[in-house]
Amino acid sequence: MERGNNLVLVLHRVAIGGALLFALAMSVGAQTIKLAGIQELSGSGATVGTNFKNGMDMAIAEINAAGGILGHKVEVSYSDTQSNPGVAKGLAQKAVDDGVFAVFGPGYSGSIMVSMAETRRAKVPNFTGGEAASITQQGNPYIFRTAMGQQFSMPKVARFMVDGLKAKTVAVIYVNNDFGKGGRDMVIKALDARGAKVVADLSTDSGQLDFSAPVLKAKQSNADVIFIYTNEEEAARILREMRKQGVTKPLVGETVLASQKVIELAGDAANGAMAHVGLTADAPIPAVRAFRAKFEQRYKYVPDHNCIKGYTSVY
After folding, report:
1. pTM of the model
2. What is the pLDDT of residue 163?
3. 150-275 falls under which CATH superfamily?
Protein backbone atom coordinates (compact mmCIF):
# COMPACT_ATOMS: atom_id res chain seq x y z
CA MET A 1 0.00 0.00 0.00
CA GLU A 2 2.76 2.42 0.91
CA ARG A 3 4.61 1.81 -2.35
CA GLY A 4 1.47 2.54 -4.37
CA ASN A 5 0.79 5.73 -2.48
CA ASN A 6 4.36 6.89 -3.04
CA LEU A 7 4.07 6.32 -6.79
CA VAL A 8 0.78 8.21 -6.94
CA LEU A 9 2.42 11.11 -5.07
CA VAL A 10 5.30 11.18 -7.55
CA LEU A 11 2.93 11.10 -10.52
CA HIS A 12 0.87 13.91 -8.97
CA ARG A 13 3.93 16.11 -8.60
CA VAL A 14 4.98 15.36 -12.17
CA ALA A 15 1.48 16.32 -13.34
CA ILE A 16 1.97 19.74 -11.74
CA GLY A 17 5.18 20.17 -13.70
CA GLY A 18 3.44 19.00 -16.86
CA ALA A 19 0.76 21.63 -16.36
CA LEU A 20 3.49 24.27 -16.33
CA LEU A 21 4.77 23.00 -19.66
CA PHE A 22 1.27 23.26 -21.10
CA ALA A 23 1.04 26.85 -19.89
CA LEU A 24 4.31 27.67 -21.61
CA ALA A 25 3.11 26.17 -24.86
CA MET A 26 -0.09 28.21 -24.70
CA SER A 27 1.66 31.48 -23.94
CA VAL A 28 4.25 31.23 -26.69
CA GLY A 29 2.15 29.62 -29.40
CA ALA A 30 5.17 27.95 -30.98
CA GLN A 31 4.78 25.63 -33.94
CA THR A 32 6.98 23.06 -32.22
CA ILE A 33 7.55 22.66 -28.49
CA LYS A 34 11.29 22.30 -28.10
CA LEU A 35 12.75 20.45 -25.13
CA ALA A 36 16.35 19.83 -24.11
CA GLY A 37 17.46 16.49 -22.70
CA ILE A 38 20.70 16.87 -20.77
CA GLN A 39 21.62 13.33 -19.82
CA GLU A 40 24.49 11.14 -18.71
CA LEU A 41 24.88 9.18 -21.95
CA SER A 42 28.50 8.19 -21.29
CA GLY A 43 30.72 7.78 -18.27
CA SER A 44 29.66 6.34 -14.92
CA GLY A 45 26.06 7.53 -15.29
CA ALA A 46 25.41 6.08 -18.75
CA THR A 47 22.83 3.60 -17.45
CA VAL A 48 20.95 6.36 -15.63
CA GLY A 49 20.93 8.77 -18.54
CA THR A 50 20.20 6.28 -21.29
CA ASN A 51 17.23 4.82 -19.45
CA PHE A 52 15.84 8.27 -18.61
CA LYS A 53 16.20 9.21 -22.29
CA ASN A 54 14.42 6.07 -23.46
CA GLY A 55 11.52 6.83 -21.12
CA MET A 56 11.33 10.38 -22.46
CA ASP A 57 11.41 9.24 -26.07
CA MET A 58 8.53 6.83 -25.54
CA ALA A 59 6.39 9.51 -23.90
CA ILE A 60 7.15 12.03 -26.64
CA ALA A 61 6.30 9.49 -29.34
CA GLU A 62 2.96 8.81 -27.66
CA ILE A 63 2.15 12.49 -27.28
CA ASN A 64 3.02 13.30 -30.88
CA ALA A 65 1.04 10.32 -32.16
CA ALA A 66 -1.98 11.67 -30.28
CA GLY A 67 -1.66 15.10 -31.90
CA GLY A 68 0.97 16.72 -29.69
CA ILE A 69 0.34 19.28 -26.95
CA LEU A 70 -2.53 21.59 -27.90
CA GLY A 71 -1.83 20.67 -31.50
CA HIS A 72 1.90 21.37 -31.30
CA LYS A 73 4.44 18.59 -31.87
CA VAL A 74 7.10 17.99 -29.24
CA GLU A 75 10.75 17.97 -30.30
CA VAL A 76 13.71 17.09 -28.09
CA SER A 77 17.44 17.47 -28.59
CA TYR A 78 19.82 15.50 -26.37
CA SER A 79 23.25 16.40 -25.04
CA ASP A 80 25.70 14.18 -23.18
CA THR A 81 27.01 15.45 -19.84
CA GLN A 82 29.67 12.70 -19.86
CA SER A 83 28.64 12.31 -16.20
CA ASN A 84 30.55 15.54 -15.51
CA PRO A 85 28.91 18.38 -13.50
CA GLY A 86 30.96 21.05 -15.27
CA VAL A 87 29.87 19.82 -18.68
CA ALA A 88 26.26 19.65 -17.45
CA LYS A 89 26.34 23.30 -16.40
CA GLY A 90 27.59 24.40 -19.81
CA LEU A 91 24.94 22.34 -21.59
CA ALA A 92 22.19 23.83 -19.41
CA GLN A 93 23.37 27.33 -20.25
CA LYS A 94 23.33 26.51 -23.97
CA ALA A 95 19.85 24.99 -23.72
CA VAL A 96 18.28 28.04 -22.10
CA ASP A 97 20.12 30.36 -24.48
CA ASP A 98 18.57 28.35 -27.33
CA GLY A 99 15.13 29.16 -25.93
CA VAL A 100 13.82 25.69 -25.06
CA PHE A 101 10.53 25.36 -23.18
CA ALA A 102 11.95 22.98 -20.58
CA VAL A 103 15.10 21.11 -19.67
CA PHE A 104 15.11 17.44 -18.65
CA GLY A 105 18.09 16.32 -16.61
CA PRO A 106 20.76 15.81 -15.72
CA GLY A 107 20.03 12.82 -13.52
CA TYR A 108 23.11 12.79 -11.31
CA SER A 109 22.48 14.78 -8.15
CA GLY A 110 25.89 16.45 -8.28
CA SER A 111 25.30 17.58 -11.85
CA ILE A 112 21.78 18.95 -11.37
CA MET A 113 22.92 20.83 -8.26
CA VAL A 114 25.35 22.74 -10.48
CA SER A 115 23.34 23.04 -13.71
CA MET A 116 19.98 24.09 -12.25
CA ALA A 117 21.37 27.54 -11.50
CA GLU A 118 21.30 28.18 -15.25
CA THR A 119 17.68 27.11 -15.74
CA ARG A 120 16.64 29.07 -12.66
CA ARG A 121 18.35 32.18 -14.03
CA ALA A 122 16.37 31.85 -17.26
CA LYS A 123 13.14 30.84 -15.47
CA VAL A 124 12.97 27.61 -17.48
CA PRO A 125 11.33 24.53 -15.90
CA ASN A 126 13.89 21.82 -15.15
CA PHE A 127 12.91 18.19 -14.51
CA THR A 128 15.35 15.79 -12.86
CA GLY A 129 15.48 12.26 -11.54
CA GLY A 130 18.15 13.20 -8.99
CA GLU A 131 17.34 12.07 -5.45
CA ALA A 132 19.60 14.17 -3.21
CA ALA A 133 17.47 15.96 -0.64
CA SER A 134 19.31 19.23 -1.23
CA ILE A 135 18.03 19.52 -4.82
CA THR A 136 14.61 20.69 -3.72
CA GLN A 137 15.77 22.49 -0.59
CA GLN A 138 17.32 25.46 -2.41
CA GLY A 139 14.08 27.40 -2.86
CA ASN A 140 14.25 26.95 -6.64
CA PRO A 141 10.70 27.27 -8.06
CA TYR A 142 11.76 25.93 -11.46
CA ILE A 143 13.07 22.54 -10.37
CA PHE A 144 10.78 19.49 -10.49
CA ARG A 145 11.81 16.07 -9.20
CA THR A 146 10.44 12.88 -10.77
CA ALA A 147 11.70 10.75 -7.90
CA MET A 148 11.30 10.38 -4.17
CA GLY A 149 13.81 12.58 -2.35
CA GLN A 150 16.17 11.04 0.17
CA GLN A 151 14.52 13.01 2.96
CA PHE A 152 11.47 10.78 2.44
CA SER A 153 13.04 7.46 1.44
CA MET A 154 15.82 7.12 4.01
CA PRO A 155 13.60 7.28 7.11
CA LYS A 156 11.61 4.40 5.60
CA VAL A 157 14.77 2.37 5.00
CA ALA A 158 15.95 3.05 8.55
CA ARG A 159 12.59 2.01 9.97
CA PHE A 160 12.78 -1.26 8.04
CA MET A 161 16.29 -2.03 9.25
CA VAL A 162 15.52 -1.26 12.89
CA ASP A 163 11.92 -2.39 13.24
CA GLY A 164 11.79 -5.03 10.53
CA LEU A 165 15.25 -6.57 10.78
CA LYS A 166 15.79 -5.67 14.47
CA ALA A 167 19.16 -4.10 13.69
CA LYS A 168 21.00 -2.44 16.54
CA THR A 169 24.16 -1.86 14.50
CA VAL A 170 24.55 -0.97 10.81
CA ALA A 171 27.49 -0.74 8.40
CA VAL A 172 27.04 1.88 5.68
CA ILE A 173 28.75 1.68 2.28
CA TYR A 174 28.12 4.72 0.08
CA VAL A 175 29.48 6.39 -3.06
CA ASN A 176 31.36 9.63 -2.43
CA ASN A 177 29.31 12.02 -4.56
CA ASP A 178 26.30 14.27 -3.90
CA PHE A 179 23.88 11.37 -4.37
CA GLY A 180 25.78 9.03 -2.08
CA LYS A 181 26.71 11.55 0.60
CA GLY A 182 23.16 12.87 0.73
CA GLY A 183 21.75 9.38 1.23
CA ARG A 184 24.44 8.51 3.74
CA ASP A 185 23.70 11.60 5.83
CA MET A 186 19.95 11.02 5.75
CA VAL A 187 20.06 7.33 6.63
CA ILE A 188 22.55 7.87 9.49
CA LYS A 189 20.32 10.62 10.89
CA ALA A 190 17.29 8.35 10.65
CA LEU A 191 19.11 5.40 12.23
CA ASP A 192 20.31 7.58 15.09
CA ALA A 193 16.74 8.74 15.72
CA ARG A 194 15.74 5.10 16.12
CA GLY A 195 18.60 4.23 18.44
CA ALA A 196 20.69 2.23 15.99
CA LYS A 197 24.48 2.69 15.87
CA VAL A 198 26.55 2.98 12.68
CA VAL A 199 29.64 0.85 13.35
CA ALA A 200 31.26 1.23 9.91
CA ASP A 201 30.98 4.33 7.71
CA LEU A 202 32.64 3.41 4.41
CA SER A 203 33.13 5.79 1.48
CA THR A 204 33.73 4.45 -2.05
CA ASP A 205 34.37 6.12 -5.40
CA SER A 206 32.17 6.40 -8.47
CA GLY A 207 33.47 3.91 -11.04
CA GLN A 208 35.39 1.92 -8.41
CA LEU A 209 36.21 -1.62 -9.53
CA ASP A 210 37.64 -3.32 -6.43
CA PHE A 211 35.42 -3.43 -3.34
CA SER A 212 37.31 -6.08 -1.38
CA ALA A 213 38.54 -3.58 1.25
CA PRO A 214 35.21 -1.87 2.12
CA VAL A 215 33.37 -5.19 2.08
CA LEU A 216 35.97 -6.70 4.42
CA LYS A 217 35.64 -3.72 6.78
CA ALA A 218 31.86 -4.03 6.75
CA LYS A 219 32.15 -7.75 7.47
CA GLN A 220 34.65 -7.22 10.29
CA SER A 221 32.37 -4.61 11.90
CA ASN A 222 29.94 -7.46 12.65
CA ALA A 223 27.05 -5.08 11.99
CA ASP A 224 23.57 -6.56 12.15
CA VAL A 225 22.77 -5.09 8.71
CA ILE A 226 24.88 -3.71 5.85
CA PHE A 227 23.39 -0.74 3.99
CA ILE A 228 24.60 -0.21 0.40
CA TYR A 229 24.06 3.11 -1.40
CA THR A 230 25.98 3.47 -4.66
CA ASN A 231 25.26 3.66 -8.38
CA GLU A 232 24.19 0.61 -10.40
CA GLU A 233 27.48 -0.86 -11.60
CA GLU A 234 29.18 -0.35 -8.26
CA ALA A 235 26.25 -1.88 -6.36
CA ALA A 236 26.49 -5.03 -8.47
CA ARG A 237 30.23 -5.31 -7.80
CA ILE A 238 29.64 -4.88 -4.08
CA LEU A 239 27.03 -7.64 -4.05
CA ARG A 240 29.38 -10.01 -5.88
CA GLU A 241 32.18 -9.20 -3.42
CA MET A 242 29.82 -9.75 -0.47
CA ARG A 243 29.06 -13.26 -1.70
CA LYS A 244 32.73 -13.89 -2.49
CA GLN A 245 33.70 -13.04 1.09
CA GLY A 246 30.86 -15.13 2.50
CA VAL A 247 28.93 -12.26 4.08
CA THR A 248 25.68 -13.60 5.50
CA LYS A 249 24.28 -10.49 7.19
CA PRO A 250 21.22 -8.81 5.60
CA LEU A 251 22.10 -6.48 2.71
CA VAL A 252 19.76 -3.51 2.39
CA GLY A 253 19.61 -0.58 -0.03
CA GLU A 254 17.32 1.83 -1.80
CA THR A 255 15.81 1.69 -5.29
CA VAL A 256 19.16 1.28 -7.08
CA LEU A 257 20.05 -1.94 -5.23
CA ALA A 258 16.94 -3.64 -6.61
CA SER A 259 17.15 -2.11 -10.09
CA GLN A 260 17.06 -4.25 -13.21
CA LYS A 261 20.65 -3.33 -14.12
CA VAL A 262 21.99 -4.43 -10.73
CA ILE A 263 20.08 -7.70 -10.92
CA GLU A 264 21.48 -8.38 -14.40
CA LEU A 265 25.07 -7.51 -13.47
CA ALA A 266 25.14 -9.17 -10.05
CA GLY A 267 23.37 -12.36 -11.11
CA ASP A 268 22.88 -14.82 -8.26
CA ALA A 269 24.76 -12.47 -5.93
CA ALA A 270 21.67 -10.24 -5.90
CA ASN A 271 19.55 -12.98 -4.35
CA GLY A 272 18.41 -12.02 -0.87
CA ALA A 273 19.31 -8.33 -1.13
CA MET A 274 16.50 -6.07 0.09
CA ALA A 275 15.55 -2.53 -0.83
CA HIS A 276 13.01 0.21 -0.30
CA VAL A 277 11.69 0.90 -3.80
CA GLY A 278 9.95 4.17 -4.59
CA LEU A 279 9.61 3.46 -8.32
CA THR A 280 9.51 0.03 -9.91
CA ALA A 281 8.12 -1.52 -13.07
CA ASP A 282 7.05 -4.46 -10.89
CA ALA A 283 4.47 -2.38 -9.00
CA PRO A 284 0.99 -4.02 -9.13
CA ILE A 285 -0.59 -0.83 -10.45
CA PRO A 286 -2.48 -0.87 -13.78
CA ALA A 287 -0.77 2.26 -15.12
CA VAL A 288 2.67 0.88 -14.29
CA ARG A 289 1.87 -2.50 -15.83
CA ALA A 290 0.72 -0.78 -19.02
CA PHE A 291 3.89 1.31 -19.08
CA ARG A 292 6.09 -1.75 -18.65
CA ALA A 293 4.35 -3.64 -21.46
CA LYS A 294 4.74 -0.73 -23.87
CA PHE A 295 8.36 -0.15 -22.87
CA GLU A 296 9.34 -3.80 -23.28
CA GLN A 297 7.67 -3.92 -26.68
CA ARG A 298 9.57 -0.83 -27.82
CA TYR A 299 13.02 -1.43 -26.31
CA LYS A 300 13.12 -5.19 -25.68
CA TYR A 301 14.27 -4.93 -22.07
CA VAL A 302 12.70 -4.50 -18.64
CA PRO A 303 12.49 -0.81 -17.61
CA ASP A 304 14.02 0.40 -14.38
CA HIS A 305 13.18 3.37 -12.17
CA ASN A 306 15.12 5.74 -14.42
CA CYS A 307 12.94 4.77 -17.38
CA ILE A 308 9.86 5.59 -15.31
CA LYS A 309 11.35 8.92 -14.26
CA GLY A 310 12.01 9.91 -17.86
CA TYR A 311 8.58 8.83 -19.04
CA THR A 312 6.61 10.59 -16.31
CA SER A 313 8.69 13.76 -16.56
CA VAL A 314 7.35 14.47 -20.05
CA TYR A 315 3.74 13.88 -19.04
Report:
1. 0.84
2. 98
3. Response regulator (3.40.50.2300)
